Amino acid sequence: MATTKEGKPSKMYYGWWVYVAVCICMLLPCCFTFNTASVYYDSVAEAFGVGKGQVGLYMTFVYATACVANLLWAGKLLEKLDLRIILSTCVVLVGGALIAMSLAQSIYVFYGAGIALGIANAWLLWLIVPVVVGRWFKKNIGFMIGIAMAMTSIGGTVFSPLLAQVIQNAGWRTGYLIEGIVALVVCLPLAAFVVRSRPSDMGLEPLGADDPKVIAREAEAKAAGQDGITLKQALKKPSAFILCCVFAGLANLGLTMNFFFPSFATSIGYDLSVGAMVASCVMIASLVGKVILGWLNDRSIVVSNLVGCVPMIFGLAFMMLFGQDSPMWLYLGGILFGLFFAVQPTNVPQVVRAVFGNVSYDRIFAYVAVVMPLCAAVGSSFWGFIYDATGSYNIAFIVDMVFAALAIVVLFAALAAGKKLKAWAKQDAAK
């Protein structure tokens, strides 16, 4: 049972309402930004007479803007401003951008919309979930992050085939318009009236703060002098920080291949419905993967990342080698790739927490989050330009498989560097 700061029992813990509101924002505006984007690429490219790489370039603007926002203001404002203001701003920006895209008469409108989407998702995709969960809850943090991040996959699974039908029957403009209106109507009231920044705003403690294991862990951290690494310490001995950034970058660069699976399917002779089904397979697997990886993160960071990265290599190989034989190989490859798709939103925050601890987690993760959209910005158009240059996605698939393998190597290096950093920080604190 949840308690107030005065120790009195309360009704249903209010943090659950905040958590549900954030999950719905992941399900709709965040999903509409990323998880349904790929179903529009071919139609938009044909409408404007441009290449797929030029369409994918608007996602580069999304990621590049998010990178700048994370570097300059997103993390700082998340600490200072009321979460209602930040989340309401995110919803308005996403909804408005999608409506603008529905009315666009030039691809350049998409690039402008990408800037608005990037500002919103600097908070929405990369920061809000791990920070809010960490503020309101003390137990099962990895699992809860996984559930929240799985909302984008649920949305992608449900909405991708529906939007493919809308595009075929009513055109891509109608699809974007529906997304924008739904995001505003459903999520703006939740953002403005339901969410709260911290438990203290409601006179509450974080849920699980009275758990004996949590108390023991915090007492151990207090006895050690601090619960993790400060930002100053992390930057003074930057190897662990750099390795976390590299890991996060590889995860983000690799997952952007998902945007091009519908295009890959059409490039080898299938119609858009097969491509949309591949995207749905990715989302279904990502949904399950985020829950599984979140659960594993509370037990073993290493096992969780192996489960996330290794199947992706096989999935892309199956799609590349056997995809033309049967669409079932594409669906299987999409499922295996979906596990890797779950690594960035679910595992990267917990890898950073495992390496640096809690004392300066919000600020350190905000800086790691700079790298994620930066690398995703490259990937969102990089794979499309490879196809435009070669007429095939084979080279792109091989490069992406190498990135997944490198991510595993970098993970082990980051965890080892984190142990050395904590030992140094303990000695430094004792001086």
Automatic annotation (TrEMBL):
Keyword Transcription regulation: no
Domain Major facilitator superfamily (MFS) profile, chain residue ranges per copy: 1-419
Pfam family, one: MFS_1
SUPFAM superfamilies, per the entry: MFS general substrate transporter (SSF103473)
Gene Ontology terms, MF aspect: transmembrane transporter activity
Keywords: Membrane, Transmembrane, Transmembrane helix
Spans through the membrane: 12-35, 55-73, 85-104, 110-129, 141-164, 176-195, 240-261, 267-289, 301-322, 328-343, 364-387, 393-417
Xref: PANTHER family: MONOCARBOXYLATE MFS PERMEASE, MONOCARBOXYLATE TRANSPORTER
Entry protein name: MFS transporter
Classification of source organism: Bacteria, Pseudomonadati, Bacteroidota, Bacteroidia, Bacteroidales
